[in-house]
Design goal:
The protein is α/β, with parallel strands linked by helices. It has 14 helices and nine strands. Helix 7 crosses helix 8 and helix 9 packs across helix 10. The structure holds adenosine-5'-triphosphate and magnesium ion (MG). The site of adenosine-5'-triphosphate (ATP) has 22 residues, from helix 1, helix 3 and helix 9. It is an enzyme of class 3 (hydrolase).
Length: 363
């Protein structure tokens, strides 16, 4: 038996979003190892995202019926919502091989030319983090997507010549967490764009039941609901919390995951009932207790919690804002009424932050 968390031999490299964060949405080393086993392999098995699933189903079915290669697909959405999973499903549904690469891996147009020219007919090319591709590679991709052709440049300077190269029809599946950063000419060349949304709690419960079945864990409906509610709308986080609750259930209980076991386990890991972790709560706590709910400047708030400005802004705030607990205003950060009640605190009367904006404009 290998206690997976305590191994000091395989340290995971630091990630931009707070390293080793239990509720972080990026994949850590352990996620990468287990995710392959938990990935749904057909559209029917893929939970939620009804609209994207239905539209994609039509695109793929129609292509199959025509005996053609499917149109290029762009998948956008936050980390951990299922973009990579869906790209593999597209290949499986089309009965096609898949080639996986990513924007940062393609430094030069030549790298892309090498990949494109070795594609088989009908192959799916998955280009992760497509917004991070270099400019010259991007321009080569335009032509490849549209005309299934690339110009390979041979030689340098005035003597350089472009040798046109025909490509077999292929399906490009691009994934991005930052659709806004894609240049319009690239965006326009996709026949279908799927925007992945955060998941409802009921959908995450289905993800959890499915994962529990694959991991041979016993979980009841309430246990799944308890974990789903703390998973920030993200399947990757749900699966990760499930593994931590499983550890607790095995060590401290009889292995069965019930509401009580899930709640006690996640208390140990400091993930609260809304999915806030220690950092999120520290930020809210400082905002409420030290600054009476704000408004307070980001730097001041960061110093108060002993963190870097960037950490507060990029790691803690996005979820607090999404949850309606904190708002960013031109005067600084303010707490919403929901923040006070979530931390079980009573807003002081007549203070600016107490009722959101109220008081800001008073005499
Ligand atoms: N709709 C879903 N149904 C079931 N499981 C899902 C679903 N979406 C995602 N998952 C699970 O969440 C994990 C993370 O999904 P995936 O790797 O596809 O996310 P991603 O959007 O590619 O994230 P990133 O932006 O970090 O690359 C998968 O291993 C899978 O087990
Ligand atoms: Mg991915």
């Amino acid at each position: 038996m290998n206690p997976d968390d305590t191994s000091s031999e395989t340290p995971t490299p630091p990630r931009p979003d707070a390293a080793e964060r239990l509720v972080g949405a990026s994949a850590d080393g352990e996620d990468q190892a287990v995710e392959a086993a938990l990935r749904p392999t057909s559209l029917g098995e893929f939970v939620g995202q009804e609209r994207v699933r239905e539209q994609l189903d039509l695109v793929l079915k129609a292509a199959r019926a025509r005996g053609a290669t499917a149109d290029h697909v762009l998948l956008s959405g936050a980390p951990g919502l299922g973009k990579t999973t869906l790209s593999m499903i597209i290949a499986a549904e089309m009965n096609a091989p898949i080639r996986i690469t990513s924007g940062p891996a393609i430094q030069h147009a030549g790298d892309l030319a090498a990949i494109l020219s070795s594609l088989q007919e009908g192959e799916v090319l998955f280009l992760d983090e497509i917004h991070r591709m270099s400019r010259p590679a991007e321009e080569m991709l335009y032509m490849a997507m549209e005309d299934f052709r690339v110009d390979v440049i041979v030689g340098k300077g005035p003597g350089a010549t472009a040798i046109p190269l025909e490509l077999p029809p292929f399906t490009l599946v691009g994934a991005t967490t930052r659709a806004g950063l894609l240049p319009p000419p690239l965006r326009d060349r996709f026949g279908f764009t799927g925007h992945m949304e955060f998941y409802e709690s009921a959908e995450l419960e289905r993800v959890l039941h499915r994962s529990a079945r694959l991991l041979e864990l016993e979980i009841d409906a309430e246990g799944a609901a308890e974990i789903a509610g703390r998973s920030r709308g993200t399947p990757r986080i749900a699966n990760r919390l499930l593994r931590r609750v499983r550890d607790y259930a095995q060590v401290k209980a009889d292995g069965r995951i019930t509401r009580e076991v899930a709640a006690m386990a996640l208390k140990v890991y400091e993930v609260d009932s809304r999915g806030l972790d220690r950092l999120d709560r520290a930020v809210l706590h400082a905002l409420l207790k030290l600054f009476a709910g704000g408004p307070v400047g980001l730097s001041t708030l960061a110093v108060a919690v002993g963190e870097e400005r960037e950490t507060v802004e990029e790691v803690a705030e996005p979820f607090l804002v999404r949850e309606g607990l904190l708002a960013r205003t031109p005067r600084g950060r303010i707490a919403t009424p929901a923040a006070w009640s979530h931390l079980g605190l009573v807003p002081p009367p007549q203070t600016p932050g107490a009722g959101g904006q109220q008081g800001l404009f008073g005499a």
